[in-house]
Amino acid sequence: MKRRVVVTGLGAITPLGNTVPEFWAGVKEGKVGIAPITKFDTTEYKVKLAAEVKDFVAKDRMDFKAARRMEAFSQYAVAAAKEAFDDAGIDMEKEDSFRAGVIIGSGIGSLQQVESSYEKIKTKGPGKVNPLMVPLMICNMAAGNVSIQLGLRGKCSNVVTACATGTHCIGDAFRAIQYGDADIMLAGGTESAICPTGVAGFTALTALSTNPDPATASRPFDKDRDGFVMGEGAGVVVLEELEHAKARGAKIYAEVVGYGATGDAYHITSPAEDGAGAAKAMELAMEEAEVSPSQVEYINAHGTSTHHNDLFETRAIKKAFGDAAKDVVINSTKSMIGHLLGAAGGVEFITLVKSVEEGFIHQTMGTVETDEDCDLNYAVGAPVEKEIHYAMTNSLGFGGHNATVLIKKYEE
């Protein structure tokens, strides 16, 4: 028998705010966290906009000495994890630390550490590189630092699947609890790649929007969309075995009931044109949850605002949902916070949970007129308020990685 898994804690660092209440208030107000890049000089860059985290002070959220041994992506993960841990009300003195684990991923780790280290090698020689360069840079250190800071000695790993990272981490943490490897898991994603190398690399791929207007640069499913806007931040959640959560009187936000993961086996950057891989991930999640497409009322789409993603994800939803595709409400949180890469799935899962909790589906901001081939209900023009029983979130990553997590309103 698979064990039931519930969500008991939420934590986020985002371009709309550095706590879940701040982030969710921004979402409900329809704010857009996109603005001119401040982290480096963009004079020679085609892309001028990003969705940066604002006013984040690491020493206010964690031990100062520990923070100095972390790059921003790890700091964001630790801050979000601490918020989620506190929100869940977990007291590790009452827990078996080997039954509490971490699966938090980053798509990239620290490009900034690579940049600064290479500059030191060029200007001062290889002997001047920071002795901590490698542990500062590598992407598993987000999970490692969270484990160290919170005393979690159970399963500790990170999934790296580019833009599907956060969702795969949550799905794999869900599995770890289902099959008895842990009772508590902190899961999600983190990223901080708004730097010269990151922006130049994605610009060279023609993946980023060159639209200079912050309000419309990220416009998923719009006929005039021209690429995604790079974002940063972290989204971490506490997943917990149901009986364990009930025994300690935890607040339960929602229940996780399905997870699907597939590969396109098609192209290194483009999703499969027929949407078959992403469709299968959605189908697998629904099969596990034992629900039909007509029961799923809301999809938080990957919705990057690139031509291929939005078109092929629409095809995937139609393939998975059939006639029910026209009835499901779809939106893209990336319209507000840009694309957080490895952190996207974590923050979007939090959006999913809050949407189910409050019966509020935010508007897809920036989108005015949808592409004629993107002909579903993308919550354009106004948010949708309705009771939600089942909802899913999709993430698609370079390399053909597809992940879907399905949740439901919690019932005894």
Automatic annotation (TrEMBL):
It is an enzyme of class 2 (transferase). The keyword Metal-binding does not apply. GO terms for cellular component: cytosol. GO terms for biological process: fatty acid biosynthetic process. CDD domains: KAS_I_II. Keywords: Acyltransferase, Fatty acid biosynthesis, Fatty acid metabolism, Lipid biosynthesis, Lipid metabolism, Transferase. GO terms for molecular function: 3-oxoacyl-[acyl-carrier-protein] synthase activity. Its EC number is 2.3.1.179. It catalyses: (9Z)-hexadecenoyl-[ACP] + malonyl-[ACP] + H(+) = 3-oxo-(11Z)-octadecenoyl-[ACP] + holo-[ACP] + CO2; a fatty acyl-[ACP] + malonyl-[ACP] + H(+) = a 3-oxoacyl-[ACP] + holo-[ACP] + CO2. Residues 2-409 form the Ketosynthase family 3 (KS3) domain. Pathway: Lipid metabolism; fatty acid biosynthesis. The active site is at residue 163. It comes from the Bacteria. Involved in the type II fatty acid elongation cycle. Catalyzes the elongation of a wide range of acyl-ACP by the addition of two carbons from malonyl-ACP to an acyl acceptor. Can efficiently catalyze the conversion of palmitoleoyl-ACP (cis-hexadec-9-enoyl-ACP) to cis-vaccenoyl-ACP (cis-octadec-11-enoyl-ACP), an essential step in the thermal regulation of fatty acid composition. This is 3-oxoacyl-[acyl-carrier-protein] synthase 2. It comes from Lachnoclostridium phocaeense. The gene is fabF.
